[in-house]
Write a structure and sequence with these properties.
Elements (H helix, E strand, L loop, with lengths): L8 E7 L7 E7 L2 H21 L12 H5 L1 E2 L2 E2 L2 E2 L2 H16 L9 H16 L9 H8 L7 E4 L4 E4 L12 H15 L5 E5 L2 E5 L8 E6 L7 E7 L3 E6 L4 E4 L2 E4 L13 E8 L2 H12 L3 H9 L5 E6 L5
Antiparallel strand pairs: 1-2, 2-8, 3-4, 5-7, 6-7, 8-9, 9-12, 10-11, 12-15, 13-14, 15-16
Helix pairs in contact: 1-6, 6-7
């Protein structure tokens, strides 16, 4: 590593504190202390987004998505929030339109049912069962994104349907990674790569000018990678059926729920998206997983600087 200001070294740090996953930052700096200063700021910002986007826990002194979802006397309240939440929700609404509703953060009522049944099935495998379709269908009646009321001027959020809740699991982590990357870019940093639970965002090339190299995991569970990708100021995000699932009567049921069928999407093992924006990539990878490959390809071809790779259940890519 030899940029203008003299010799530099490549450093790496880890955190297990945010978004229920491991976060890795690799970067090139002139000293360990400078790297620690930079990554300290990056991880602090990632932690802020983690707390703001948490749907399960509230934190003293802030209103977050859990606060927005909370009912008071059977109704949601108008909640004043940090501008960071407003910006994320506005992009999520744009993603809903872009994907024809396949990425819908208003699906919380349905996803919470699947979450509860999956958790119980993992805790007590012998008692694992599927949610009743009538329960899912009833919950699906409360997933209209238009009931998410955002007042940009006053920085408030309100859910007009008392049975509705937000779940940003398909989008928030990638969005947060992108915001941290942009913050590092504004600090003048380059030759960095962020990896938060497989959401990878590079900031410039390596200091020697070469690209960062990463592999796409084999979704069949076999060791090794099915493809190697080189990145420079880009993001790669993969959604797959092989990481979060439980087993009912010998069959796996993963966590990516199709808004049309209200069941785990079938036909694909993984979808990887490469694009300049990690938030866009995260939302697209989830949406594409719930589309036919033909529809997904049409969507990708309509977007500039975006590429995707599908692996179907026949392990064809």
């Amino acid at each position: 590593c030899v940029p203008e200001e003299g010799p530099r070294e490549q450093y790496k740090t880890y955190s297990f504190a945010y978004f229920d996953t491991v976060s890795t930052i690799i970067g090139c700096e002139s000293s360990q202390d400078k790297f620690a200063e930079t990554t300290g700021k990056a991880l602090a910002l990632l932690g802020e987004y983690h707390r703001l986007f948490d749907i399960y826990n509230e934190y003293e002194g802030i209103n977050n998505l859990c606060t927005i979802n909370k009912l008071v006397d059977g109704k949601h309240q108008v909640v004043k929030v940090d501008r960071k939440i407003i910006d994320m929700l506005l992009m999520a609404k744009e993603m809903h339109t872009l994907t024809g509703g396949k990425m819908n953060i208003a699906m919380g009522s349905v996803l919470s049912i699947w979450h509860d049944y999956r958790t119980e099935g993992l805790d007590q495998p012998a008692l694992a069962k599927l949610p009743p379709m009538e329960l899912l269908t009833e919950a699906a009646g409360h997933t209209d994104i238009n009931d998410l009321i955002i007042d940009e001027e006053n920085c408030t959020v309100y859910l007009a349907d008392p049975e509705m809740s937000l779940d940003v699991g398909a989008f928030a982590k990638g969005y947060a990674v992108e915001m941290v990357a942009k913050a590092l870019e504004e600090m003048g940093k380059t030759n960095y790569v962020l990896n938060v639970g497989g959401n990878i965002r590079t900031i410039g090339p390596k200091a020697d000018g070469s690209k960062w190299k990463t592999g796409i995991e084999n979704p069949t569970g076999d060791e090794g990678y099915i493809e190697y990708i080189e990145l420079e100021t880009e993001a790669i995000v993969t959604s797959g059926s092989y990481q979060r699932y439980y087993i009912v009567a010998g069959k796996q049921y993963h966590h990516i729920i199709d808004s049309d069928t209200l069941m785990p999407s079938t036909g694909l093992l993984s979808v990887s998206v490469i694009c300049p924006d990690s938030g866009l990539g995260d939302g697209l990878s989830t949406a594409l997983f719930c589309m036919s490959i033909e529809d997904g390809m049409a969507l990708i071809e309509s977007l500039p600087d975006v590429e995707a790779m599908w692996v179907d259940e026949n392990e064809t890519k």
